[in-house]
Amino acid sequence: MHALLRRGAIGLALMGGGLLLCAIGLSLVSLVGRKLWAMPVPGDIEVLQMLVAVAVACFLPLCEINDHHIRVDILASLFPSCINRGLMVFSHLMLGVVSMVLLWRTALMMLDSHAYASQSTLLGVPLWIPQAAMLPGLALMGLCALSQAARHLTRPLPELEETA
Amino acid sequence: MMSGLDIGGLALGVLLLLLGLRLHVGVGMLVAGMVCYLLVNEGDTSALLFTINNLVYTRFSSYDLAVIPLFVLMGQFAIHGGLSRALFRASATWIGHWRGGLAMSAAGACAGFGAICGSSLATATTMSQVALPELERHHYGKRLATGTVAAAGTLGILIPPSVPLIVYAVLTQVSIAKLFMAAILPGIVAVLGYFVVIRIMAMKTMRDVERAPKHSWAERLTSLREIAPVLLIFGVVIFGLYGGWANLTEAASIGAAACGVYAAWRGGMRGDGLYRSLLGTAEATAMIYLVVIGADLLNSGLALSQLPFELADWASGSGLAPLTVLLLILLIYLVLGCVMDSLSMILLTIPIFFPIIMQLDLFGLTGPEKAIWFGIVALMVVEIGLITPPMGMNLFIVQKYSRNTSLGTVSRGIVPFLGADMVRIAVVVFVPALSLAWLG
Amino acid sequence: ATTLRIAHFLPSVSNIQKNVLEPWCAELKTRSEDELRCQIYPSMQLGGTPAQLADMARNGVVDIAWTALGYSAGRFPRSETLELPFMLPAGGVTANRIIWEFTQRYAQDDFKEYKVLAVHTDGGTAFHTRNTPIRGAGDMKGLRMRASTRMASQVIDALGGAPVSMPPAQIADTLSKGVIDGAALSWEVVLPAKLDEVTRFHSDTRADQTSPTITVLALLMNKRRYDRLPDEQKQVLDALSGAALSQRAGVAWDKAIAEARQTVASDPTQTLVTLDDAAHDAMRQATQPIVDRWANSTEGGIDRPALITGLQGIVAEQAPELK
Ligand code: NA
Ligand code: NA
């Protein structure tokens, strides 16, 4: 299960990376077009914003499955290992809950954008499209967090550190 | 009814508790922000839920923040393209034969790498791998070697581009281009400070250290050709930006593309390099944005509670000298820096401290000048957090890459560099012209 | 005491905050004997985007929001009448009297979920260009013009220009780089957006001519929050809001507009163009299809032609000399 989630997270992150490369290409084409032919790509800014928003959402699960989200570990060395284990379960569980809340509310926003036909200002791209594209990243981050919590619950800490 | 100070204070208390319990920083901030909203609205959840609706898309699609993944990718390309090694070799060719010269070369290479990488952790990581083995081979003591790389790694954010500066600019609506320009001179002062420390340490501790051979001028010029792309990329990004023909996003795109081309050309980056660059970018970016959305909710929650404004009123009406207030704030940064990372600190503290600073009369600076100058000062103090024990990320990184070295050794090695940093912070604080000189 | 949280999207030094909201809040405070206070959050300090401001007030994230109605496309359909081309005079005081009366008589249904504290104009649209003076209807052909609202972009389109949208902070920068040729904006923002440094020609309507289009701005309060105020506070708020507050905004705008025009007029490198009647008529002709298209829509079961007639009636009463 964990390995499957990791593969999913890597795949999603690579897709996000691809979107980021597209954003770079777009911004270069727009710059060159503007400089050489006074012809900027219309709506380059809003497209870049959408690309980066989706890309960042795609990046979230990988960071969680590798447990690299920022934490303050100052007190960790003071606690005995069983407490640390409990804290890690709690910490990943909280990220799982928060991911689900963000997923739920962002999905609501997407439905709202759809209902009111919100569009980007220049190109009129329906905003629900990029918003919907962010949902898989948020959902997978939640799953990865729950899987991390389950792993800490079922396996002792040293074993986890070796496999990390 | 609770006052703003009560609510804000309670939320910050909740945050500290959660962080102590090893919650992710972004999650802790989100929860503390929720506490703020619920208390301010007396349990009514509609305001909170509506704010969360917009939270993720609004922040992730922010045009100003979009440069962060671009700069992160640029740094990743530089790492996988072997740029760090080329930089270290080039500076060793020039100054490696001085007393302590190889350590200075490592510091110089960090500065060069910092000019195309927006993160200190990435700078410290790549330079540890390149410089530590060389320093060991030339019998540099562990303390000096690890201290140098850990301290000089902070040049990754001191020298633009810099992720914390971008975030500061977004929070305070100061021009990112101006902040980057303002950071250049203090960054150079930082490098010089590290050179002085290395020189003094070298005189005291390493009479028997093997000096690297002196290189001919022909060799030196050849070495420059190797790193010419770095200078070019930095020039394009910073001066193109300041000259006004590209905006920051475009400058960052040029930089990332140029580093990618360079990496491919140097042969250091085939399919595998690209794969690792993209995954590295994904992790670093995700790390930053999770904290950003947490801080976003916490900061609007604190603003709702009016804590920042009440604190600012209190500070300006307290009768304390403005300089005392400033020093108190810097002290808080130093204490926080012992346990928190730089980005979380900027995100957490700037919304609280910035209104206070803007109300104080400091050295007769105008509002916009003060905003830029304080950005540089804040950057310097949070950067110190990376190298203060017990929680200094750079210390951990350097220890990981230095064989058979304890954290204690690294921590002792960093002390003289911390001294140099303190002196530099004092200079930057009391000589605002250092940060404002090039801004006209 | 009650603290009202007011959010808007401009900096704290903007006309709306310095010359409208802050004096208004000061008066609320004195008249209510310190029972009503304000906390103003400028520059979207509470997060979100300007397009979300109206929703923020409706959902109670803030008590009061100042926003452009056009940011929330489709949510204030009746008030769109006010933005139709060549309907209202430029400037603040007279236009705001008309706007307030129209809102009260015809557009109440737009604001069912709010307590409306003020509705006012941005002062009307003038055309600020770099190299090409706009003297007649054909002069805009091919020019890339920044438009601030959907209606403004339709007007530019109808006049043959290419409408471009971008955040206000980028206008001066992109103008100076030649990415766009001009901007359709109220005089009120010329100085804060530094347009006087990057454009040379400013085409304007006379006092007795209608403006190409206006932007409708409004100060909206959360309805539940208003209903729960003690009666004395409601009375103070009512006395200082509505027509009175809209007039306060009108005065502040007229002052800012006069100042901007003065600055530009006294600068020898700048040219002020006033549209003559023929050019004004030609532009109105060119934009008539926009009005017709809008009037023919029956979306939401709204009788749009009646709204137009109603507005024209009020204009004829309040500004009889207007062409
Ligand atoms: Na840097
Ligand atoms: Na530290």
From TrEMBL, chain A:
Molecular functions per Gene Ontology = transmembrane transporter activity
Q: Which UniProt keywords apply?
A: Cell inner membrane, Cell membrane, Membrane, Transmembrane, Transmembrane helix, Transport
Start and end residues of each Tripartite ATP-independent periplasmic transporters DctQ component domain: 25-154
Tell me the Pfam families matching this sequence: DctQ
Q: Which residues cross the membrane?
A: 12-33, 45-65, 86-107, 127-146
The source's domain of life comes to: Bacteria
Q: Which GO cellular component term is one of those annotated? A: plasma membrane
Localisation: Cell inner membrane; Cell membrane
Q: How is the protein disposed in the membrane?
A: Multi-pass membrane protein
Q: What is its main location?
A: membrane
Instruction: Say if the entry is tagged with keyword Cell membrane.
Output: yes
InterPro entries for the chain: DctQ (IPR055348)
Subunit structure as annotated in this protein's UniProt entry: The complex comprises the extracytoplasmic solute receptor protein and the two transmembrane proteins.
Family listed = Belongs to the TRAP transporter small permease family.
Q: What does this protein do?
A: Part of the tripartite ATP-independent periplasmic (TRAP) transport system.
Listed name of the protein: TRAP transporter small permease protein
Q: Which organism is it from?
A: Larsenimonas rhizosphaerae
Organism classification:
Bacteria, Pseudomonadati, Pseudomonadota, Gammaproteobacteria, Oceanospirillales
Automatic annotation (TrEMBL), chain B:
Query: Which residue spans traverse the membrane?
Result: 12-40, 60-79, 144-167, 179-202, 223-242, 248-265, 286-307, 319-339, 346-365, 371-397, 418-439
Domain named TRAP C4-dicarboxylate transport system permease DctM subunit is located at 12-434
List the GO molecular function terms: transmembrane transporter activity
**Looking at the keywords, is Transport present?**
yes
Pfam families referenced in this protein's UniProt entry, alphabetically: DctM (PF06808)
Q: Which UniProt keywords apply?
A: Cell inner membrane, Cell membrane, Membrane, Transmembrane, Transmembrane helix, Transport
Would you tell me the Gene Ontology cellular component terms? plasma membrane
List the subcellular locations: Cell inner membrane
Protein's membrane topology:
Multi-pass membrane protein
According to its UniProt entry, the function of this protein is described as: Part of the tripartite ATP-independent periplasmic (TRAP) transport system.
The UniProt subunit note reads as follows: The complex comprises the extracytoplasmic solute receptor protein and the two transmembrane proteins.
PANTHER family hit by this protein: C4-DICARBOXYLATE TRAP TRANSPORTER LARGE PERMEASE PROTEIN DCTM, SIALIC ACID TRAP TRANSPORTER PERMEASE PROTEIN SIAT-RELATED
The family classification in the record reads:
Belongs to the TRAP transporter large permease family.
Q: What is this protein identified as?
A: TRAP transporter large permease protein
Question: What species does this protein belong to?
Answer: Larsenimonas rhizosphaerae
Q: What is the lineage of its organism?
A: Bacteria, Pseudomonadati, Pseudomonadota, Gammaproteobacteria, Oceanospirillales
